[in-house]
Amino acid sequence: MTGAGDWTSHFQRFRKAAPERINLAAHSHHDWPDVSFAAQEAAWADAARLAGNKWDIVFGEIIPAVQAGIARHLNLPDPSTIAFAPNTHDFLRRLLSCLPTEHPPRVLTTGAEFHTARRQFARLAEDGLILLDEIAPEPFATLSQRLLAAVATGGHDLIYVSQVLFNSGATLSDLSALAHAVPSPQTLLAIDGYHGYLALPTDLSAIAERAFYIAGGYKYAMAGEGCCFMHCPPGYGRRPRDTGWFAAFGALTAPPGSSVGYSGDGGRFLGATFDPTGLYRMRAVLYWLAKQRLDATIIHGHAIALMRGFLSGLDGLGLADLGRANVITPLHDGTAHGNFLAFRTRHAGTLEAALAKLGIATDHRGDVLRFGFGLALAEADIAEALDRMQGLQG
User: Fold this and answer.
1) Which terminus of the chain, N or C, has less C-beta within 10 A?
2) Mind listing the pLDDT tens digit for each residue in 248-273?
3) Distance of alpha carbon 35 from alpha carbon 29, whole angstroms
C-alpha cells in the first residue's frame, strides 16, 4: 500500500480497550482520538464547578469554537448559521414543521436515504400527510442526472438527499448544480452530509445561502453521539413549528400578532435542554485536526489508500462473496465515493457474523456488507485483517 499515513498513536485509548478488534465498521462508529477523553472529563468538571452556570461556558465558548471549526472544514462564510441537536432526526422534524399546511407537502428524495429520513417520510406518506417522490439510486452513473431532472420539474416543498448514500458509498458530487437546479425559492433543500462531512472535501460556500447541510459527530467527525449540527441558510425556515426554548436565545424576531420570536441565525432551529458533553468532545477533535493539519482531503486520500490495499489483498484471497464483482461502490473516481466499500452478497449477514468472530468489526444492511476506513486505521491494520480473513476460506 502507498499513500496511507499512520495516526494510530492518537487513538490508543480505543485501541487498548479492545486490542483484538480491527474496526472496519469505520463508516459508522469511528474510534475517538485520545484528546476526546480529557474533553469528556472537562464537561463533567465544568458541571461540578459551575452547575447551572455551565451554560455560560457552553454557549459562550464551546459552541462558538465548534461552529468555527465546522465552518472552516465546510468553507461556510458565517459560523452562526450552524445549529446543534442531539441527533439528525430533531433537525428533520423541524424542517418538516416549516412546510406549508394548506396542502400535503411534496417531498423529493432518493430511495437510498438513511433510516432517519426513510422511515419518517414513509410514515407520513402512509397517512397522506406528505406526497413522496423517490428517485431510484441505481444505476449510480445516472443518479445525479435523474435527480437533477426531477428537481427541475418543480413543485416540491422539500428536497432531501444524501451527499454520500449510506448503503453504497455513491456520491452526489456536484452539490452546487443541485442547488441551482431548484426552480422555486420557496423550496427547502436539505443535504444529509453525515457520510460526507470530514470524509469528502466539501466546499459549501457557493450554496451556503440556499441549502441546509446536516451531519454529526458519530461517524467521520470522530466525536461520538449527541453532537449533530445543521447549517441553516438565511431566510429559509424562519419559524419552525417544532421549536424549543433554546430557539428564543439571541436576537428575536416575530411577525405582527405573534408572541413567539426566533433567533435570526441558525439558533432558530435549536430545541431544548441537551447534554453538551458531545460538543466538548467535538471541540477537542476539531482542535486536534487543526494541530495535525488534517482536513477532509487528507482523510479521504488516506481512506482511498487503505481501500486500494484492502481490495488488492482480497484479490489474493479469492473469496467468492468479496470479489471486485461484488463491489457496488463506484470506484472510478475518488469524488464518486465516500470512505467505505459496499459489497452486495446474499450472505452479507453471515459474513458479518463470521468476521466478528475473527475480531473484525463490519456491518450489513440487507444484502450489502460494508467495510469502512478512517484515520484510526493504518496499513498494518489492513494487513492484519486480510491475514485473519484467510479463515473465511474454510
Assistant:
1) C
2) 876 666 676 677 889 989 999 999 99
3) 17
Q: Which residues touch 281 (CB under 8 Å, ≥6 apart)?
A: 32, 36, 39, 40, 217, 223, 224, 227
Are 310 and 324 in contact, with CB atoms under 8 Å apart? no
Contact assessment for residue 359 and residue 374, using Cβ atoms and an 8 Å cutoff: no
Looking at 254, 289, 324, the residue that finishes a domain is: 289
Q: Which of 289, 305, 321 is the last residue of a domain?
A: 289
In this prediction, residue 173 carries a pLDDT of 77
CATH number reported for the structural domain that contains residue 56 in this entry: 3.40.640.10
Residue 3 domain-assigned (yes or no): no
DSSP conformation letters of 72-110: HHHT-S-GGGEEEESSHHHHHHHHHTTS-SSSPPEEEEE
Return the SS3 of 162: strand
Kindly list the distances between the CA atom of residue 219 and the CA atoms of 111, 194, 197, 259, 271, in Å, as whole numbers in the listed order: 22, 7, 9, 39, 22
Q: Does 243 score more than 70 pLDDT?
A: yes
pLDDT at residue 350, rounded to an integer: 96
The pTM assigned to this predicted structure is 0.95
Domain limits at 302?
8-34+295-393
